[in-house]
C-alpha cells in the first residue's frame, strides 16, 4: 500500500472564517407534522409537500426511538422514487440519509434496496434486525442546483423507504485534499474520550461525532486547557478536542479502529486531530509517529496545548487487514494520544448527470403536464433506474432517446420536442391531444418511431413526416386528421394510404361509413402483418 500524500497541518495556517450555512435542511419523512424543534434545537419539517408518491407509516416501536425515526415513507410503485432539495450549484454539502424499518408493515422482514444521490449509486441499504437504524453520510460538491435523494427497488416485494434526510452546507475549502469530482463516504466520525454524541449546535456543520465504544483498554483523558483554538480549514469543533484517549504505558501502541470493512484495498481518506490535554513540564515529552502496518508514515507528532494539530491521509488504499497505529518515539516520556478522527471511503468519479438540455426539456414537459411532476431525480441515471416513461443512451452523459407517454391522459397541443434532438421514439398514443401536428417533429434528426394514434388531432400531416421514408408513423384513431393538405378538402373522402415517398401513414376519415370501413381493413391488414 503506497502513500503518495501524507501531510501535517499546523496552526500556522490562516484562520478561515466560519461561513453561514447556505443549506440546513432536515426532513422527517412520513411525518404528519408541518415542523418541530428537536432536542438539539434542529428544526425538522414533514415531507407531505416535498413528494407526491409513497405512503406514510408509523413504526411498531415508535416509543423506543426518537421522534424522527418513528415515521417513514414507503414506496410500492415505480423503479425509483426521489426527493429533490434546492442547493447551491458548486457548493459542498454533507448529506445524511437515515432508515429505520421498525417492523412498520408487521412482516418482521426488513427490505433491501438501493440508495442514489444525484444520479450516482451510493449504497445498497441492508438491515440486520427490525430495530436497526441505518445511516449513510456523504460529503461532496453539488453539480446542479438541486440535490436528489432516491431509493430504488431491486428485489420483488421488497419496498424501499426513507426515514430522514439531512443536508448541511460546508465551507468550500473544507476537505480540500480530495478531488471535488469524488465524494467522501463517511465511515467513522469519532470523538475519543467523549461519553456522548457531539453534533449541532456544538458543531455548526452538524457532523455527528460519536464516542469510542470499543472495549480496547484505552484511558480517557479530559483537557484542562481554558480553550482550544481551532484554525484548521476542516473546522473540527472545539468540543471534540476537550477529550482524548491514550494507552496505559508509553511502550504500548495506540491501535486505531478505523472500522474499514472492505475485504480488498479500497481508496480512503482519514483526518486525525491531536491536542495536548495538560501543560507539560520540562521533564515531560509526548511525541509519537503514525504507522501503517508497522511502517512509520509520518514525522514525529507533538500535540500542542490549547491548539490542535491535524494529520491527514489521502491518495491511498486500505482494507480490513490494514493496521493503523500511533507509536511513541524513543525520546517520549508519555504515551500517544488522539482526540478525534474522521474516516472516509472515496467514491468513484461523480457523474455530471443526464445531458443538461435534455433535462431542461423534460422539466418544461413536466411544467406543462402536472402528472409528470411525480418523477424527480436524474431521468437517466443510474442505469437501469430511468424514469418509467423515458429511455436513454448508455453514454457517460446520457441522452434521452425515447418518450413513452401513451395513456397518460395528456391534453392540449403536442409539446415542442425540438430540443430533445436525440429522440428516436415518441409514443403519445391513447391520450386526448388536440390541434395540429407540429412541423418541428420532422426536424428531429434521429426520430424513427412516432405514435400519435387515438388522440383528437386535426389538420394535415406535415410533409416532413409523411415523406420521411425512415420514419414509422402512426396517426390512426384521429377522426378529423388528414394524411395531406389535399385530403382535408370536404369533397375528398379518401382514406389514409402510402405516401409518395413510401412511408407508412395510418389515418381515419371523418365520414362515418368510411370510418367503419377503414377500421375493418386496418385491423385486417394489421393482423396479416
From TrEMBL:
Gene3D superfamilies: Ribonuclease Inhibitor (3.80.10.10). One of its GO terms (cellular component) is membrane. Its main location: membrane. It is a single-pass membrane protein. The keyword Metal-binding does not apply. It holds the Pfam family Malectin_like. The keyword Transmembrane helix applies. Residues 27-346 form the Malectin-like domain. It is found in: Membrane. Residues 1-21 form the signal peptide. Keywords: Leucine-rich repeat, Membrane, Repeat, Signal, Transmembrane, Transmembrane helix. This is Cupredoxin.
Amino acid at each position: 500500500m503506497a502513500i503518495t500524500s501524507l501531510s501535517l497541518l499546523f496552526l500556522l495556517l490562516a484562520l478561515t472564517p466560519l461561513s453561514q450555512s447556505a443549506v440546513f435542511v432536515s426532513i422527517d419523512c412520513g411525518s404528519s407534522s408541518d415542523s418541530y424543534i428537536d432536542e438539539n434545537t434542529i428544526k425538522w419539517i414533514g415531507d407531505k409537500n416535498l413528494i407526491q408518491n409513497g405512503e406514510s407509516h408509523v413504526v411498531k416501536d415508535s416509543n423506543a426511538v426518537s421522534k424522527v425515526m418513528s415515521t417513514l415513507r414507503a414506496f410500492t410503485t415505480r423503479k425509483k422514487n426521489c426527493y429533490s432539495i434546492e442547493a447551491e450549484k458548486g457548493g459542498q454539502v454533507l448529506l445524511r440519509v437515515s432508515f429505520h424499518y421498525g417492523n412498520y408493515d408487521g412482516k418482521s422482514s426488513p427490505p433491501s434496496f438501493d440508495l442514489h444521490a444525484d444520479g450516482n449509486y451510493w449504497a445498497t441499504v441492508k438491515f440486520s434486525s427490525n430495530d436497526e437504524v441505518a445511516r449513510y453520510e456523504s460529503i461532496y460538491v453539488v453539480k446542479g442546483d438541486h440535490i436528489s435523494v432516491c431509493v430504488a427497488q431491486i428485489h420483488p416485494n421488497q419496498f424501499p423507504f426513507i426515514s430522514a434526510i439531512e443536508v448541511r452546507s460546508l465551507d468550500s475549502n473544507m476537505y480540500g485534499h480530495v478531488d471535488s469530482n469524488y465524494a467522501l463516504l463517511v465511515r467513522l466520525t469519532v470523538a475519543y474520550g467523549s461519553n456522548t454524541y457531539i453534533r449541532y449546535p456544538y458543531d455548526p456543520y452538524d457532523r455527528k461525532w460519536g464516542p469510542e465504544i470499543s472495549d480496547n483498554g484505552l484511558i480517557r483523558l479530559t483537557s484542562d486547557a481554558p480553550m482550544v483554538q481551532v484554525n484548521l480549514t476542516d473546522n473540527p469543533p472545539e468540543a471534540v478536542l476537550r477529550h482524548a484517549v491514550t494507552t496505559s504505558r508509553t511502550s504500548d501502541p495506540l491501535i486505531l479502529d478505523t472500522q474499514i470493512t472492505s475485504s480488498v484495498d479500497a481508496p480512503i481518506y482519514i483526518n486525525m486531530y491531536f491536542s495536548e490535554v495538560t501543560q507539560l513540564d520540562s521533564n515531560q515529552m509526548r511525541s509519537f509517529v503514525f504507522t501503517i502496518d508497522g511502517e512509520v508514515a509520518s514525522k514525529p507528532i507533538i500535540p500542542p496545548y490549547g491548539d490542535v494539530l491535524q494529520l491527514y491521509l489521502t491518495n491511498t488504499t486500505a482494507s480490513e487487514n490494514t493496521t493503523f497505529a500511533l507509536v511513541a518515539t524513543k525520546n517520549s516520556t508519555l504515551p500517544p494520544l488522539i482526540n478525534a478522527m474522521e474516516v472516509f471511503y472515496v467514491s468513484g468519479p461523480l457523474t455530471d448527470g443526464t445531458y443538461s438540455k435534455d433535462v431542461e426539456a423534460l422539466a418544461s414537459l413536466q411544467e406543462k403536464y402536472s402528472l409528470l411532476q411525480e418523477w424527480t431525480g436524474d431521468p437517466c441515471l443510474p442505469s437501469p433506474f430511468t424514469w418509467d416513461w423515458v429511455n436513454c443512451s448508455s453514454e457517460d452523459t446520457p441522452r434521452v432517446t425515447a418518450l413513452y407517454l401513451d395513456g397518460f391522459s395528456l391534453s392540449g397541443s403536442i409539446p415542442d420536442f425540438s430540443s430533445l434532438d436525440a429522440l428516436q421514439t415518441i409514443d403519445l398514443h391513447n391520450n386526448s391531444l388536440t390541434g395540429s401536428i407540429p412541423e418541428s417533429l420532422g426536424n428531429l434528426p434521429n426520430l424513427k418511431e412516432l405514435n400519435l394514434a387515438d388522440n383528437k388531432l386535426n389538420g394535415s400531416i406535415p410533409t416532413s413526416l409523411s415523406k420521411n421514408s425512415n420514419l414509422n408513423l402512426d396517426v390512426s384513431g384521429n377522426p378529423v386528421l388528414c394524411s395531406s393538405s389535399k385530403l382535408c378538402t370536404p369533397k375528398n373522402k379518401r382514406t389514409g394510404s402510402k405516401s409518395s415517398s413510401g412511408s407508412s401513414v395510418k389515418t381515419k376519415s371523418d365520414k362515418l361509413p368510411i370510418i367503419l370501413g377503414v377500421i375493418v381493413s386496418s385491423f385486417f391488414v394489421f393482423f396479416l402483418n
